[in-house]
Design goal:
Elements (H helix, E strand, L loop, with lengths): L4 H7 L25 E4 L20 H21 L28 E3 L10 H13 L21 H4 L19 E6 L3 E6 L4 E6 L16 E7 L2 E7 L17 E10 L2 E9 L8 E10 L10 H4 L1 H8 L1
Length: 316
């Protein structure tokens, strides 16, 4: 079964429409910007600007080509280091990091602050990170902290238990593979359906209030509205950390996502992250997504269902 039942139900309501005469933005039959389709957000551009680039926020065409060639050569070298019969991990065949930087040639996905770097952690967040690092000293990336199987599975804990994908967030971020998101629309709802762990966020557009502050969910509570031709999604009420920044945010995250179709094949995904218990100031990043003609396929994440006995045995 390729899609979740609820997504199929929403998808059946509307089929994407062709651009109306004289309009640059494709429209739905009811006149809203048509954001529907499968959108590919893989890219070689890093989240943060490399230290050696300092104040350089945009590559020249020649610099972008050189960076792409260097990264692809590094991936090719990994193939030589990781033979096809590798045990215990994927080889490079399965990774899908992309082969180009973003169309704007930016040196980082982070756009604010202007230095292209994520703001510093608060004192409390830094103390939490230091305490966790100490507790996990000598523990592998996919291993639980000793004595912490239920509450803590390490830096990739939520995805290891197939609760949330490492790039599906929210917010969505380019990563090693499954960098696709599909949008479905009706007049009063939008669905953001991520390929990773096939999670569907069903977001009301009808002006209803957020859920009560004490009613929290893994993906938070999302509400959306149109700002001109931009879909603005506000999300609060997170249960705890998500897969974002390897669990770097907290339940106090306030997320603003802006989706704008800027061309027939390009969707701009502009995100503002505000978690005052983690970072010293809000910050933003932008990912241009490209229309993908291929469908999504189920990511059958199963470790938490079928591997529990072996996981527990290994943890001992």
């Amino acid at each position: 079964m390729r899609y979740l039942t609820v997504v199929l139900a929403v998808a059946a309501v509307v089929i994407g429409s062709a651009p109306a005469a004289g309009q640059d933005v494709p429209r739905t039959p009811w006149g809203a910007p048509d954001l529907q389709g499968v959108w590919d957000f893989r890219t070689l551009t890093p989240m943060e600007r490399p230290d050696e680039l300092e104040a350089k926020d945009v590559y020249t065409e020649e610099e972008a080509a050189a960076f792409e060639a260097r990264r692809l050569a590094e991936f090719a070298a990994m193939d030589e280091e990781e033979p096809a019969d590798i045990v215990g991990n994927y080889n490079q065949f399965w990774f899908d990091r992309g082969d180009t930087v973003v169309q704007t040639n930016r040196t980082s996905l982070v756009t604010d602050p202007a230095d292209g770097r994520i703001p510093a952690l608060t004192g409390a967040a830094a103390a939490r990170a230091a305490a966790l690092a100490k507790a996990r000293e000598g523990t592998g990336r996919h291993e639980p902290t000793p004595g912490g199987f239920v509450e803590d599975l390490g830096s990739n804990g939520l995805q290891l238990r197939c609760i949330m994908g490492f790039n599906s967030g929210p917010p969505m971020t380019p990563s090693a593979y499954n960098n696709n998101m599909q949008v479905f629309q009706t007049e009063d709802h939008v669905v953001l359906f991520t390929e990773m762990v096939h999670d569907a966020r069903i977001v009301p557009l009808d002006g209803r209030d957020q859920l009560p502050a004490d009613l929290r969910q893994w993906s938070g509570s999302s509400r959306a509205h149109w700002d001109g031709d931009t879909l603005v999604v506000e999300t609060t009420n997170f249960l705890r950390e998500t897969g974002f920044m390897r669990g770097g945010s907290t339940r106090n995250l306030h997320l603003t996502e802006r989706l704008t179709r800027v061309g027939p094949n390009t969707l701009t995904y502009d995100v503002t992250v505000n978690d005052p218990t983690t970072w010293t100031r809000p910050w933003s990043f932008v990912v241009p997504m490209q229309l993908n003609p291929d469908p999504l396929y189920e990511y059958a994440c199963h470790e938490g269902k079928y591997g529990l006995y072996n996981i527990l045995a290994g943890a001992r």
